[in-house]
Amino acid sequence: MDFGPFLFLASLEGLVQSAVLSLTALGLCLVFGVMRVVNVAHGEFYMLGAVLAWWITSLFPVHPAAGFLAALVIGPALVGAIAFCSERLVLKKLDYNPEATIVATIGILYILQQSALLLFGPDARPVQPPLYFRVDFPWFGYSGYKLLVVAMAIVILLASWYVLSRTRAGLVMRATQADGEMARAFGIPVNRVYGWVFAVGAMFAALAAVLIVPIRQAHYLMGLDPLLLSFIVVITGGLGSLRGTIFAAIVIGMSDGIISMFFSPTLAKMTATFLVAMVLVFKPEGLFGIKER
Amino acid sequence: MKAIAGKKSLLLHAAVIVVLFGLQFVLPEYHHLTATRIMVLAVFAMGFNVLFGYTGLLSLGHAMFFATGLYAAGLTVYHLQWGVVSAFVFAILTGAIVSAAVGAIALRTRGVAFMIVTLMFAQVAYLSTLHFTTYTRGDEGLVLPESARSMEWMGLRLNLTDPATRYFIALALLTVCLVITYRLVNGPTGRALIAIRENEERTRMLGYNTFAIKLKAVTISGTLAAAAGAAYALLFAYIGSSFASIQYSIDALLFTLVGGAGTILGPLLGSFMMFYLIDIASNYTAAWLLAAGVVLIFLILYFPRGILGAVRERWIAWLP
Amino acid sequence: MKTKNSRVNPAKRATLKKAGTVAALAAAAQFNPAMTAWVSGSDLPIKVGMQLHRTGIGASYGRWYERAASAAARIINDEGGINGRPLELVIEDDGTDPRRGAEVIEKFATLHKVDVAYGTLFSHVVIGSSPRAGELKLPYYVVSEGHHVASGSLNRYVFQPGITDVRSQVISMAPWVAQNLGKKVTMIFPDFAFGHDHRDYFSAAIQEQGGEVLELIAIPPSESSFTRYLPRIPSSTEVLYHVMVGPGVLTFVKEMGQHFGSNRPQIFGFIDSLEAVDLATPQLEFLEGTHFWEAYPRYAQTGQSEHDSFYRQAVGVDQNGASVNDARDVSTYSHMFGCWETLFIIKQAMEMSGYSSPTAAHKKALIEATESLQEFSEGRNHPQGNKVFNGRIHQSFGHQNISRVEGGRLNVVHRTSIEDGLYEPEADYTLMEL
Prior knowledge:
B: mainly alpha, two-stranded antiparallel ribbon
């Protein structure tokens, strides 16, 4: 294929990747930004979203779109509930000590992953897209649903931007993020906010997974990759900066596709991971973040 | 008082080694083989503990050091036909260099960033075992040749396929590691490490070069992990990518937490307990790793200092 | 459970042990006269330790490996067991992980005290386990299709008698591909050892046919999205050769379809890319008219042999290669027959050598008996077809099938001869000490 169309395809793929990554990383970033907690189980919430989507769509055999819509609502809600419970039952009791919460979320990671294995089995499960059409470009074909994923992700991102910046809930969250002590002094129930933020963070991951699962498949071991990628994005975006995270997700998502055109993909992954570690070491405020503290 | 405590703890550690030595004569065959494996893994966890338990630095990338030793020993034996001893020494040196280099970079960060940086370096290491598949055969891995299964050592012919020899070597490695950790922890460096764990700022104010001390801790910790990796490769004759995966970094953390971070014998106890817990759980459910998750949560909530940590708190204050 | 009393109702003995160990004793053999051949004192079972991918990335294969092995064990027990003793499958999960695999081998050898170990698929588990099997002197019969056994890199205790290795598979099909599909080939394969065997041996074989490989596209392991690799397929490609394993296989094939639409080159795939996947899954319609390698045709062919229908019924597979209980539970038909056939080969070798206890002498005799085997003729015990066995490299060579997707099912269009897949052996395990 010529270079032009090649680049075009890589950009399309990059867009899809960016869309999913924005949502997943936004959840991780929100939790880190507000609670100062690194949630290692984030990838498992993503996995749960996907596996639940498979389970829910299999309960609605009428039309793929009906099942998908149900999954889009019920899946993240269930994941949010699970996350809320684990926050209340575990993280809260640890008083959000950074080391202890990392260990605890590793524990949650295993529990979620292995429970998914027990309940839904070890197979990769396909989910039908709500609607499927093939877009024919002169040089190659492309899944129309993938373009729909990008559109849906943009809608969700806009909606969450609205909630965060224009509603009281958003205000409370931002206040807690800016300064927990001060927020408490102003009568914000910081403790309860943490519970909700943790749940919302997990729901973002689950939403991303429901969107992507008709393209990929639900499998109980699928959580590690999105976790590492989200780490990369959140770090590059400046830990805890929402705008930086979205920007980083777009840059990393787009470049991911394009870099692997030139290098062996394993080498590309190696280089990218190494560079991001270096960013964290030498420029901890991130490449796109605003300096905090 | 202090001297008595010191003597007691010395006796305790000597007793543990003696018990482990004696065990090989009474253990049924399966548990004999398992104990060999666990002792090597325990060395890995003890290395991890130097950094996590005593210095307070949580690395999520220790599999990288384990794999460094594993590959340094395995690849020289496989491709260059090195002898077992020289491969082992080479692996330890490589482990020291790699961990010093990683430490020099990663220690510029602290707290959460340190965990993530080590995690990412380990991911890079894992991917490179896949990328350089021409030499490593990637995830499929390599079987070490017959020639690497025996060695001459001080006029003694040691056959690594013999379970008794293997047990002896694993125990010897564990003993050396125990002595190193014991001396380290009870020496001035150990006290400095603990001071850093408790309050790094204050330690710095007292005139310590905390960076240098932490670097020393990373290097010792990484080198012990590499020694365990090298022993694992040479004793069990297989090297492969999966040993560099994140799972192994978490295993070290798990073993240490269970037994008790910041206690010398904790990782050893933790390795034994977790190995058998998972082995037994696998008889009852396909989701045997569930046990690991439940134990982690339970410990961090109720026994954040692990079994020996709790013992020390309640009963035996002199436990190092 | 393991009562010494041979008069105990065998059905009782066959209850599932909760401990994950399935005793595949002869439940149905209650009235089988052969049972009386179990003389008192020799009713201790022959234990076959099955290393199973119950969890991890190999789990879909594992489920079917267990079914095929259990079915074969049931039949062996119905017919009086091995040397008059019942066969018991002792199953341990290896999590598709080489370290756990090695531990499981130790467990088999020293805790369960099995007579042989058996049934492993993923090559890293085989390779990680084999040194332990060799050192513990435990005969180890794998069903992996990797080239590792035949390459001579393992040891004298490891056998692969039930399934052809990948090197033989690809070289046997290269001539047909070159003559019927095209000579300009682009290969897509996973970027690890299994994929590299495909890359190396198929490239060489197609060049021998006067063809050329235009582009080699290696996909890194754990990749979950493939579209961006597809533009690297040169437009002059006549044949696209694909092989993929792991949980992402369906995504891979779907994305290939989106990419090409109707405007595709000839596509020749290894069925590994679609094992345990339903061909009727939406978006796979584009596969119509493409070709697949199959070791053993998933869809019952016209003129189906009686052995195949017997085998399907025993394992619980319908005419479309899916479970009789659930049409969506598609089998790994091109691999699991290896478990079935290998178990009968173990029985054959044990009976040849008069195997009765796990002593060094008996195991030595068993190894030598297995090595002395030369061919297996098609039949109930070998429903996939006849095979020749090379005792020096411990590897079987059988027929391969090339199937075409027609009307949503796979129809065999070519069956290779065994000679097509033979190559010069590179090793000789029989020279190794036992």
